[in-house]
Design goal:
Alpha-D-Glucose-1,6-Bisphosphate, Chain A, domain 4; 146 residues; 3 helices; DUF4468; alpha+beta; five-stranded antiparallel sheet
Length: 146
């Protein structure tokens, strides 16, 4: 009986949580270079910014100037009674579109259940940092070493 009383608040809390949805966040801006040059720089940015196996490029089309990928906004942690371990993450889809002298980045987060450590406000802040990183990287004139 005692265990049942302890489970009731857990069940009520679990049923009371609702998924958080964030509208896609996008930014278009001018960037120096041709579509091909911007394509190479965007791929380089992905390589530098996404240094985790959970953050990958899904699709590339150089002719159309499109790159899509998955981005982990934050890891999810779980406890199994013995240890804390990473159990997936809060993910978003990224699409980059390129044309001569311009680019657009769109970040669309997947639905998630907010927790005390990760909520809608933190997700939006994380996405804005990512977009600003892309803008800074693409706006710089690239130096060639050769």
């Amino acid at each position: 009986m005692r265990r049942l009383l302890l489970l009731i608040p857990l069940i009520v809390f679990a049923c009371g949580t609702k998924p958080t949805t964030i509208e896609p966040i996008e930014k278009s801006f001018e960037a120096p270079g041709s579509k091909n040059e911007l394509y190479v720089r965007a791929n380089s940015w992905f390589s530098e910014a996404f240094n985790s196996p959970r953050m990958v490029i899904d699709f590339r089309d150089k002719e159309e100037g499109i790159i899509t990928g998955k981005y982990q906004m934050a890891p999810k942690w779980a406890y199994n009674g013995f240890a804390i371990y990473q159990n997936g993450g809060y993910n978003a889809n990224i699409q980059i579109q390129l044309k001569d002298s311009a680019t657009k980045i769109t970040v669309k987060p997947e639905q998630f259940v907010a927790t005390g450590k990760f909520n809608k406000k933190k997700a939006i802040l994380n996405i804005r940092k990512l977009i600003n990183s892309y803008i800074d990287y693409m706006s710089e004139e690239q130096l060639t070493a050769f």
